[in-house]
TrEMBL record:
Keywords of this entry: Hydrolase, Metal-binding, Zinc
Family indicated by similarity: Belongs to the metallo-dependent hydrolases superfamily. Adenosine and AMP deaminases family.
Protein name: Adenosine deaminase Add
InterPro entries: A_deaminase_dom, Ado/ade_deaminase, Metal_Hydrolase
Biological classification of the source: Bacteria, Bacillati, Actinomycetota, Actinomycetes, Mycobacteriales
Domain (Adenosine deaminase): residue spans on this chain: 11-332
Gene: add3
Superkingdom in the source lineage: Bacteria
Natural source organism: Mycolicibacterium canariasense (Mycobacterium canariasense)
Length: 342
């Protein structure tokens, strides 16, 4: 069992956190009010995020979209990026994050949004030391043509910080296979690839690997219901970015009882599991709390929790020298921090 304090101190590498899902409640209320976006019920900061009230993923995403619609200038993006990387990042000993950015709900042109995000990344690094990069997330509920146009813009306005693309929103409303040409374009341009696969079935994981050529899977809990696909993912050491609290609250993983049993099955099967917080304030969590929740539900010790971070280092899209630097830093923390944190 680990304490909350230890969960906070364990170094973290964050591969599954959404920018629009990590806006502090007070900021969400301020930006929506200032930019004329009405959230139904006119909630205050104490009630704008009511994870217990989201009937389903769609209801959660409607709030997520309103926050995106409220981003009207470069500084709005700088501010939310900074707050995500500090309040829901460095404050929880997140050393490095690849943050999902959903440009589609905002009225701002992509290059302006990108400039603001880069400002936030720079300021957060200056103030806290956190390193971060960007994954451009495609809304699978919109058309493939729109996704292609987004990736074309990403390529046209290419910066080193944008490492790859992702695919999110409701799986049942946007199956992955039609996005293969979009992913092919990204691959040709040297962008890395991941995609959400939270509600299943396991065959979708093979679509992501074989048709979208993903090198990671976001969530992917249903993999353990198919022995062959599980074995394949073990052999290929496919990384899975799991988000215990949001998936449990959302009941997308098919449990919703706080047991996180799917994550246990994945770890026991030998899959390469990473832990993150998805949309932390929207689901009443933060990176430390997700480590704490899964660690306590499954009885993991500090060494296992550090393994989740080591898995995320292996799975991240930095180049090998940057990964080696993170590995050395984690090894040094383990040498000096482990005793203290037992
Ligand atoms: N976008 C942001 N969070 C998401 C989630 N948990 N599932 C699908 N799309 C998302
Ligand atoms: Zn997600």
């Amino acid at each position: 069992m680990i304490s909350r304090d230890v969960a906070q101190r364990i170094p973290k590498v964050s591969l599954h956190c959404h920018l629009l899902g990590s806006v502090p409640a007070a900021t969400a209320v301020e930006l929506t009010a200032r930019n004329g976006v009405r959230i139904p019920g006119n909630p205050g900061a104490d009630s704008v995020y009511d994870s217990a009230a989201y009937e389903d993923l769609g209801e959660f995403l409607s709030v997520y979209d309103l926050i995106g619609a409220a981003l009207h200038d470069r500084d709005d993006y700088r501010r939310i990026t900074y707050e995500s990387l500090t309040t829901f990042g460095a404050d929880h000993n997140v050393w490095y994050r690849e943050i999902f950015v959903s440009p589609q709900p905002s009225p701002l042109p992509y290059p302006t949004a990108l400039a603001g995000i880069l400002d936030g990344i720079r300021d957060a690094r200056t103030d806290t030391g956190i390193e971060s990069r960007i994954i451009i997330a495609i809304n699978r509920q919109h058309t493939v043509a729109e996704a292609l146009s987004l990736v074309e813009q990403v390529i046209e306005h290419r910066v080193d910080e944008v490492l790859g693309i992702g695919l999110d929103y409701e799986e049942v409303l946007g199956p992955p296979a039609p996005f293969a040409p979009v992913y092919a374009l990204a691959q040709k341009a040297g962008l890395s690839r991941t995609a959400h696969s939270e509600s299943g079935p396991p065959a979708q994981i093979e679509v992501l690997l074989d048709e979208l050529h993903c090198t990671r899977i976001d969530h992917g809990y249903h993999v353990v219901t198919d022995e062959r696909v599980t074995q394949r993912c073990v052999e290929e050491q496919v990384p899975f970015t799991c988000t215990p609290v949001s998936s449990d609250i959302g009941r997308y993983s098919g449990s919703g009882d706080g047991s996180h049993r799917r994550i246990r099955q994945m770890v026991d099967a030998g899959l390469r599991v990473c832990i993150d917080s998805d949309d932390p304030p929207m689901f009443g969590t933060d990176p430390s709390n997700d480590y704490y929740a899964v660690g306590n539900a499954l009885g993991y010790d500090v060494a296992q929790m550090v393994t989740f971070t080591a898995n995320a280092i292996d799975a991240c899209w930095l180049d090998s020298s940057d990964k080696d630097a993170l590995r050395a830093r984690l090894a040094s923390w383990t040498d000096h921090g482990m005793e203290m944190n037992r």
